[in-house]
Protein: START domain-containing protein 10
Amino acid sequence: MGRGVIELPLEEVSLFIADISHREQWDKHLVNIEVLQELSSTDFLARMHYRVRKCVIRFERDAVYYERACHVDDKFVMTALSVDLPKYPPIPGLMRAQILSGSGWVLEPYDGSSHTTLVTYLAHFDPKGLPTIVVNQVMQRQIMAISCIRDLLAPSLPPSPSPQSTRRLKKSKKRGKGSTSSLPHIQFLDSNAENSGEGEAAPYAASSGNGTTDTTARFEDPVSVYAFIHSSSQT
Structure:
């Protein structure tokens, strides 16, 4: 998970992030993204082709997922979750990855300001077949998307600094090297630091309704996805 501040109003930042046509500009691992079906003005199914070349292990994956955007109080929330639909098999030659529950964006006014936005990015992604330590490295690179978005939207501002882990930030403040008054442009939150072992990534286990667990919600058609998500959000 990463967090950063963009010195622009929430509405402007949220419109940019939600616009799928912009995503290849700020997601450097994205090869292609295709909307498979629009379910409403704020909900759609999409297929993503993903390629990582800057890590120890190079790999390509695809994912089919459901995405929804909404406003909750003064926040803008955008969530994504992998779905398994028989009519959309993996791209030939690629392994199917999973976007896990809890993935998405939360945008809110920073420190009560209507002109500055606090952006939180939760990247819960299981590329399959890779050790946890590699997955964590990929996710740290993915969180750099916040920096890319800031630089694209506000090019006149100073470039975003390199991300620092929360551990380093705390140490710097203790030594008097950090400024508590400066905006935290990009900040890593080490929620998975204790899980950076050599084993396979531990995916979120979602109940399939029959006593078993799996990591992908399975449906027969896009309409059932829409009905399930909206019925769940009302319970």
In short: The CA atoms of residues 12 and 168 lie 31 Å apart.
